[in-house]
Specification:
By secondary structure, the protein is an alpha/beta fold. It has 2 domains: about 100 residues, no CATH class; about 200 residues, no CATH class. About 50% of the residues lie in helices and about 10% in strands. The strands form 2 sheets. Strands 3, 4, 5, 6, 7 and 8 form a 6-stranded mixed sheet that branches. A hairpin with a 5-residue loop joins strand 4 and strand 5. Helix 3 packs across helix 4, helix 3 crosses helix 6 and helix 5 packs across helix 6. The longest helix is centred in the last third of the chain and has 29 residues. It is globular. The two termini are about 35 Å apart. It holds the Pfam family HTH_Tnp_4. Its cofactor is a divalent metal cation. This is Transposase. Keywords: Metal-binding.
């Protein structure tokens, strides 16, 4: 067993001890409710107990949270974490499954609004319209394991861009590169604009007329359907265009790229967590993992 003080250091968890303390305070109650709910389901109903009664966990809640953060940050195997915390591998597996789900449900923090969090794309559009914020949106791909040969739908994960099996995440950030929302992830073969439409972005453009979203050339279809709100860079001039026209369009594309680059910075913050560099676990757990990491990264929004 390794000292708990050492394991809770920012080098291992990716968060400061102050941030860790706030996560403990926020998630302790929901975790206890999850544990009690699982027991009641196994027993067929709740029962009355005296204060202090019940099972004694070998791995306390704080240790479960720290183990999950270390797993997200460094992708250490469950067996190694079990050795570090002095418990069985299965205990670590169960703990990570519990805490990861709670972290994914938190949503993303709102800049300068402690306690307020955005969980859906509708929340993001409503917040952007109320605050007059220009949004930035982009998609990124995470390499995943190749589906078994006997399973259907294998081609859906083959990315035409990466030439790998991937899953695609759509991320929305503000003008300072602070993460506001990420979707439930889609197979890597799906086009960026299609993934956005699957999340209902067209409906939100219709309901929030004042919201503008800066996009790249992968979303030209959205610009066609929602002009003035879905903003993509101007097209490049062709070879027969006058030199001054080519120069003007290049300058316009550069200005657009300079404004949209903040969402790329947000994606880079996510990819610093090793599990998002290359996902080697079950694909069905990747969406919750990405949302958990995005929520943790966004917590810096509340501190400026």
């Amino acid at each position: 067993m390794v000292s708990r003080m050492v394991l809770s250091h920012q080098v291992f968890t990716g968060v400061s001890r102050g941030h860790l303390a706030s996560l403990v305070e926020e998630l302790a109650g929901p975790w206890q409710a999850v544990v009690e709910g699982r027991r009641h389901e196994a027993r067929g109903g709740a029962r009355k107990r005296e204060a202090g009664a019940g099972v004694r966990h070998r791995l306390m809640f704080v240790d479960r949270l720290v183990a999950t953060l270390i797993h997200l940050r460094h992708d250490l195997p469950h067996a190694v974490l079990g050795l570090l915390f002095g418990v069985d591998r299965s205990t670590i597996t169960r703990a990570i499954g519990e805490i990861r789900g709670l972290l994914a449900e938190r949503g993303c923090a709102v800049p300068d609004r402690p306690g307020l969090r955005l969980r859906t794309l509708a929340d993001v559009f409503a917040y952007a319209q109320a605050e007059g914020i220009e949004l930035r949106q982009d998609a990124t791909e995470v390499q995943v394991r190749r589906p078994p040969a006997s399973r259907g739908g294998r081609r859906a994960f083959v990315s035409g861009k990466k030439k790998q099996n991937t899953m695609k995440a759509t991320v929305v950030a503000d003008h300072q590169g602070r993460t506001l929302w990420t979707d439930a992830l889609r197979p890597g073969r799906m086009h960026d604009a299609t993934a956005a439409r699957k999340e209902g972005i067209g409906t939100f453009f219709q309901h929030f007329h004042d919201v503008e979203v800066l996009l790249d050339d992968g979303y030209l279809g959205l610009r066609r359907d929602h002009p003035g709100q879905a903003v993509t860079p101007p097209r490049k001039g062709n070879k027969i265009s006058p030199p001054e026209v080519l120069e003007a369009r290049l300058r316009a594309r550069h200005r657009h790229s300079s404004k949209r680059i903040t969402v790329e910075h947000a994606l880079a913050d996510h990819k610093r967590w090793k599990q998002l560099a290359r996902w080697t676990h079950r694909r069905e757990n990747l969406p919750a993992t990405y949302q958990a990491i995005a929520g943790i990264v966004s917590d810096r929004n509340t501190t400026g």
